[in-house]
Amino acid sequence: MVRFEAVGLRYPGSGSRGGAPGPEALSDVSFALPPGSFTWLLGPSGAGKSSVLRLMHLALRPTRGEVEVLGLRLSRAPRAALAPVRRRVGMVFQDFRLLPYLSAFDNVALPLRLAGRPEASLRADVGEILKWVGLEAKAGALPPELSGGEQQRVAIARAVVHRPALLVADEPTGNLDSRQARRLLALLAEMNRLGTTVVVATHDEDLVARFPAPALRLQDGRLHDPEDARGLFAPAAELG
Amino acid sequence: MARRRRYSRDPLGLRRALAGPLLPGLVAAMALLAALALAGAGGTAALAERWQRGAAAAVTVQVPNPDAARMERAVAALRALPEVAEARAIEAERLAELLRPWLGASPALPLPGIVEVRLRDTRADPAGTGERLAAAVPGAVVEAHGLWVGRLAALARSLQGVALAVLLLVAGVAAAVVAVATRAGIAARRDAIEVLHGLGARDGDIAGRFARRLGLLAALGAAIGTAVAVPVLLLLADLAAPWLGMEGAGAAAGLAGLPWPALLALPPVAFLLGWGTAQATVRRWLRRLP
């Protein structure tokens, strides 16, 4: 499902043409996530959580090592092969990344429209997923008219509306109060129960205590306990 | 609500990011220049053809000491030549009539006989014709206008070359204008492009949206420019009519004389130019994303 093999990652240096590469953001990161698992990605800010997530949703390629996502080996795959795999990965960003001039409905419908689904069939799916996140009454609202928690739920709806095989969330509770955070986690856990592989990055240990699941701990771009991470996790059947 | 619904078909918001009269206005100016160049090329070709035709009719043969026998022999010899399409002797009375303003009613000068000759191919060298004629009729001379006809034709051809160069230049500038507008649109919608890219949009999806929008704007500009060009070209055609032998032919003939296929092709060509330039510009920019 997701496999990292001795992954090293350097961001290009400053300058549009790329100067000297910066220090390694990730070093020798190896782990494998089985299908249907729920995994926490933990560590302080700057530990490399976002880099791992960006590799998982194909926004970056590893500098060395191999990343395999949904059967695609990232280091050698041609550029054109990445887009179809991206469409099977749902990503929830900390800053939502909603398009401000599109209504909640149109933001959520984006992945389906990109996949070429006819309008008639996508209306029902988008309506259903908005209902699932409790926003069916706000389908016509623009993101700036929504609260932070509502925007976050639109972002979740957009990430799951096309039933992705892998759902990746970066600090999804960062902007939410604890009640909304619990509700969000319940949504993610339900997606996981329906068979989606879920990876959630957070530094909120309370949340992790509330939803116990296997965790990858990052520290300075390295896995805190590589031996533990190398093994396969058991599917998080007890979660929820 | 209508505005919001419109955006559902335009997730990059390009109708707002790529709007305003600037791009269509610039393309309209380019299309106007292109229309002028097209009409100029067509007009020069018509002028050149007419000059060559006129000059061919004006090739003359002088036969000194004309008597009936010498004139007949000259005309017969000319008609026998393969490059001669037509040879016709001018009557002595008509020649005297033509020359009366200069020479008076009964000239003391001995007038040569004149044969009007029309050549099949105006580019043929008249020197050979003259030699063969002189063999049949001693003293006969061919007045060759080929030299200046050739010069005029060369001028016309170089004007056509200039018109073609202007067309290419106009197309290049229009492409550059579209490329600049595309980059401005990319800069305005960079976040949206990155979101769509992250959701798995192919390069072709994103580039296609830009290309359709910019192609339409370019076609709109070209349509406006062509519409402005038509009355300008009619005016020019009216001014050029005397040289084309169409004086007083009327507005209908002027309309019919415009290079319509080329003018009507301008908007679709502008669409293709805008579409292709936007495709290339956006796809090149997208290469920076993984």
Characterise this structure:
The complex is a heterodimer of chains A (240) and B (290). Chain A is α/β, with parallel strands linked by helices. Chain A is 32% helix and 22% strand. Chain A is built from 8 helices and 10 strands. In chain A, helix 3 crosses helix 4 and helix 3 runs parallel beside helix 5. Chain A is globular and about 45 Å long. Chain B is of the alpha+beta class and 290 residues long. Chain B has 2 domains: 172 residues, no CATH class; 86 residues, Alpha-Beta Plaits (2-Layer Sandwich). Chain B has a 4-stranded antiparallel β-sheet. The longest helix of chain B is centred in the middle third of the chain and has 43 residues. Chain B starts with a helix and ends with a helix. The relative contact order of chain B is 0.17. Classes of the chains: A alpha/beta (240), B alpha+beta (290). Chains A and B meet through helix 2 and helix 3 of A and helix 1 and helix 8 of B.
